[in-house]
Design goal:
The chain is α/β, with parallel strands linked by helices. It contains 13 helices and 18 strands. It is an enzyme of class 3 (hydrolase).
Length: 466
Amino acid sequence: MSVTFVAPKAVLPGKSEPVPATVTVDTNTGKITDVKEGVHDASGDVVKVPENQVLLPGLIDTHVHLNQPGRTQWEGFATGTTAAISGGVTTLIDMPLNSIPPTTTVDNLKEKQSAALDTGISCDVGFWGGIIPGNQDDLVPLLKAGVRGFKCFLIESGVDEFPCVQEEDLDKACKALEKYDGPTPLVMFHAELDEHAHEHKNGDANGHANGKKESNPEAYETFLDSRPESLETAALSLILKLCARYPSLRFHIVHLSAGSALPALREARAKGIKNLTVETCFHYLTLSSEDIPDNATQFKCCPPIRTEANRQLLLDAVVNGEIDYVVSDHSPCTPELKKGDFMSAWGGVSGLGLGLPLLWSEKKVRQLGLVKVVDLLSGAQAKQVRLGNKGAIEVGRDADFAIFDPERKVEITKDGLLFRNKMSPYVGKTLDGRIEKTYLGGKLAFDADKGVTQKDGKLQTDAGKK
């Protein structure tokens, strides 16, 4: 059975702006079978995209915490993938924590995969593995089992089952990964490094202070001062050493928040470091510390949301291509864990499915044009995690699409959020653009006026294949 999408505007590979296109899909295989520029007559089942809307490749979010099993009350596969598909995200990659067990062994990966399948998922889901002290022998088996790469923490993660690593742990892990005979492995870092950790000043990666609190823990500035940019620049120094030491591996910094790290990154790339990529998050590009009220812990995350001047540096880096792509780092928890002040509440921002309108509402990013903005949220991430079947409207790829109205205004309300715990710093914002419909494998998966129409997501488990 086939269906044809007829779009007056579509984002196609090699085109600098949306162009008219006619796209044919085999719904039995879920693959794109034909792409023609221009609007052509089509017989049979036809989806006509309205003149004011744009056909996009399905979006990808490679930094999501779904927390199931073990902490499903924080999120879960059902609610998380529902939120994703509502925002045009047809594929997400789940982080190795905060689930119990963490994705640090093949058995733990299988447990997580079973939980996803048993729950039912609305979009496609892949998995990251984790590097923790002592699990270097588990890494190659995890790659062969289908993880997309590995995440580690250079500062305590905030959960006991996922401890941080030291340089000697990373050496063991990298030496193990060098022996892998498949595609080049990817190692990702939560890049905060406390060089004075023995003084117990800065706490863990969720911002739980180990030492004496400042006088006003209700003020965001107190929390911000406890997470200085020097933690990120120190981490970058170590990561650049590893890049040079292990040129056969790929390295990646997750959720960069410090604009002061950009000059060192720029210099390293100019000197020939080619195996390091960087992401940032929607909250670092759209929110500023000066606007955060006392005790508004929905804004708390680590690294922290920084100043407006810093935000502008990150926006410039996205526009200039120094930052490779943008993710949500959707890291939810229960309302109880967000209670209290900035120094005691759990750290993490919830925003899964809101990414494209958030970016499109930023004038500096919008000047890139829709094609490049979509690449930040789709094609660039597909390339990074080797999702060769995703990220473009092209013959042979999965027929994953989002239909986007770039001019429609949308107010973010709690009732409109589809993730489990409806706490988000974006509530109350009015954004430019709305995802009208999302298709997975050529089949309607979400309609903005009707909600989720099916749960037909699949696990992405081929990362270990050549």
